[in-house]
Amino acid sequence: MKPKHWFVFILLGSIWSSSFLWIKIAVTEVGPITLVAFRVLFGLLFSAAVILVQRVPLPRTFKGWLPFLILGISNVAIPFFLISWGEQAIDSAVAAILDATVPLFTIVIAHFLLHDDKMTWPKVAGLLMGFFGVIVLMSKSIGASTGSVLGQFAVVLASMFYAGSSVYARKSTEDAPGLVRGAGPLVSSTAVMWLASFTIERPIVIPHLPITWVALLWLGILGSGFAFILNYYLIHEIGPTRTTMVTYIFPLGGVILGVAFLGEQLSWQLLAGAVLIVASLAVANMQPRKVTSMSF
Prior knowledge:
The chain is globular and about 45 Å long. Helix content is 75%, strand content 0%. It has 296 residues and is mainly α. It has one domain (3-284). The chain has helices spanning 3-26, 32-54, 62-86, 92-98, 102-113, 121-138, 146-172, 178-200, 210-238, 240-244, 250-262, 268-284. The mean pLDDT is 86.
């Protein structure tokens, strides 16, 4: 990757790493559906303001909007809800760690659906190293309660949606401006999540604590609006497999913030897993003189 790609990559990873902390804070006062509804609404308002200022042209046909409407469900509404729901039962650090499984699903999907993002031995080696790091990190949860297990499964399921959506976004949004790629999915996700809030989580809880509003604004403006623009930029610049490796930064930020601000337990598994995950990034992005794709 070029230096500009690394800069965006690290910035995106830092923003999303902090999201797990803010989700854990917000979900203590509001339900997961309402949390996501506020989050995507604030993200949409931010993105719409940027589009108006930049005078970015929007799609003029339903066909042009269709990929973004689908991504709003598959890449925003569903995974955002699953992670928020899961964090009711698991630590924010654990959620950040489990979300690092996204590239493991992406590399397989991209290999079969994209012609320019095939498996290579460095990618596989890096991903396996990162996967082993995730296993080490998860080993501390052996013997967890049923609620904790379901919470962890919800985050892994969210990772599957992220992976499939990244590949779909690469195939279906190539001609759209970067700002539209980031804002478009927030339209349908906002509509769906507010509809769900009014029908499922009645009566809707309006936050009273200032820290909850800070969390929702952070998650919406930075974690959704700004971060989505960065994410779709990387998908089209370096491919969905390498872009989703940004999730390997999550354990570092998630663990540090969870331990520092939420009093979550620091263990040797967290430290060892974090080292393995950072090393996997370097391996997966190695560019030897000649790398052959793996054939299936």
